[in-house]
Amino acid sequence: MAQRLTVSDGVSKRTSRVRVAVRLRPYMSRQDEKDEGPCVRGLDSQNLEIINWRNATETVKYHFDVFHGEQTTQQEVFLSSVKPILPHILNGQNASVFAYGPTGAGKTHTMLGTAEQPGVIPRAVREVFNLVSAKDEDEGWDYSIGMSYLEIYNEKVLDLLSPNAQDLPIRENKDKNILIPGLTHTVVSSFSDFDKHFIPATLNRTTASTKLNQRSSRSHAILLIKV
């Protein structure tokens, strides 16, 4: 499912690279009602199969760029699916990573993680600081790193770095880039400086209890790092 997408805006053509990685969360410790066991099985590093719930003797196979099995660590997910795209940021290109899936699939764990098992976001930000530091020493460039953090909940855009702010508008400029006027942009000088802003802001996110998760994220959260 890796593909090159050519986007024409009437003036120029832009090419982007899209890769799809699937992560299989560990099977839940409590028994399911029918005691049928896992319905998804990894075949290799790129393929998985899903049992047809109508007929357990049939399976459907899917191919992806990367398949991360139940035993895959946070570090392995980062090294294979995230770290390779980060150097492009220093070349003036946009790099995006997002997690998609139903409640309880493990999106927050993969993206945020814990203090003992940090996820994609803290690992990626730390790596960006490492890349900038290396460029600074080798080539004498002067870099500035800033962050913005927002959530989209009930069709409202909320600034997590300024929780008292009202619903923010979404705009598009002449180059088709998405802008959010009034969104807080904070310059950070180190990873610890980033953490000082990021952790309290994350606590401002909208959460609720579900059958699968006592503290489930109920909004879409977007962290923007600008170099």
From TrEMBL:
Instruction: Give GO MF terms, alphabetically.
Output: ATP binding; microtubule binding; microtubule motor activity
Q: Report the Gene3D superfamilies cross-referenced here.
A: Kinesin motor domain
Which PROSITE patterns has this protein been placed in?
KINESIN_MOTOR_2
Q: What is its main location?
A: cytoplasm
Keywords of this entry:
ATP-binding, Cytoplasm, Cytoskeleton, Motor protein, Nucleotide-binding
Instruction: Tell me yes or no: is Disulfide bond among this UniProt entry's keywords.
Output: no
A GO cellular component annotation in the UniProt record: microtubule associated complex
What are the BP-aspect GO terms?
microtubule-based movement; mitotic spindle organization; spindle elongation
As for subcellular location, the record says:
Cytoplasm, Cytoskeleton
Q: Kinesin motor domain: from which residue to which, for each copy?
A: 17-227
Q: Which residues bind ATP?
A: 101-108
Q: Does the keyword Cytoplasm apply?
A: yes
The record's family statement is:
Belongs to the TRAFAC class myosin-kinesin ATPase superfamily. Kinesin family.
Which protein is depicted?
Kinesin motor domain-containing protein
Give the source species: Gambusia affinis
